[in-house]
Write a structure and sequence with these properties.
The chain has a single domain, classed as Rossmann fold (3-Layer(aba) Sandwich). 52% of the residues lie in helices and 16% in strands. It has 7 helices and 7 strands; from the N terminus they run αββαβαβααβαββα. The chain has a 7-stranded mixed β-sheet, sandwiched between helices. Helix 3 links the parallel strand 3 and strand 4.
């Protein structure tokens, strides 16, 4: 085992990464991490009061993060939460409109003004996630993004609230996104 992969070293690196998570708003202004998490929690509390829907999207590992988070937001936060990657719908939309437009097509038909869409992409470059985030914003939904990798990733500037992890390590970015989403759902605990 190399020193870099020793669990104590990796745990320390992960903790440092989480603490340095950068949060920005739609104007690109940097928010303190705690204030960003609280703003997102407040957004979801308002969504719950208004009866709106929370949609989560991601590809690959980020789709797994989205699924887990949707369950937490529904179970713990008592939100109407779901993902948009049900296999028959996603493959239909991909086949008919191209994969880069699959989520956007579903968002255009399902999302209502006042809903919230969480767009997750480790690289922040996935065209299908970016197109869906844009369609959600155009429909009057709030958009919250989770990305990593390059500081100038396009997804990072597309949300009302944007969480970015400064790492090129898929494991760190995906687990970091999951941790932040879990922390947010725990803040909504009602029972």
């Amino acid at each position: 085992m190399t020193q870099d992969m020793a669990i104590s070293s990796r745990a320390s690196q992960f903790c440092d990464l989480l603490q340095k998570t950068e949060v920005t708003n739609s104007d690109g202004n940097v928010l303190d991490l705690e204030k960003g998490l609280q703003a997102f929690s407040n957004m979801l509390a308002e969504l719950q009061k208004g009866g709106g829907h929370l949609y989560l999207i991601g590809n690959g590992g980020s789709a797994g993060v989205a699924s887990h988070a949707a369950t937490d937001f529904m179970n713990v936060g008592k939100l109407k939460a779901s993902t948009l990657h049900e296999a028959s719908q996603l493959t239909c939309m991909s086949n008919d409109y191209g994969y880069e437009n699959a989520y956007a097509r579903m968002v255009s038909q399902m999302v209502e003004p006042g809903d919230v869409v969480i767009a997750i992409s480790s690289s922040g470059n996935s065209m299908n996630i970016r197109n869906a985030a844009q369609h959600a914003a155009d429909k009057g939904a709030a958009v919250v993004t989770y990305s990593g990798f390059a500081a100038d990733t396009p997804l990072r500037s597309m949300g009302d609230i944007n969480f970015w992890l400064d790492s090129n390590d898929y494991g760190f970015v995906e687990v970091g996104h999951q941790f932040l989403l879990h922390n947010t759902s725990d803040r909504l605990r009602t029972s």
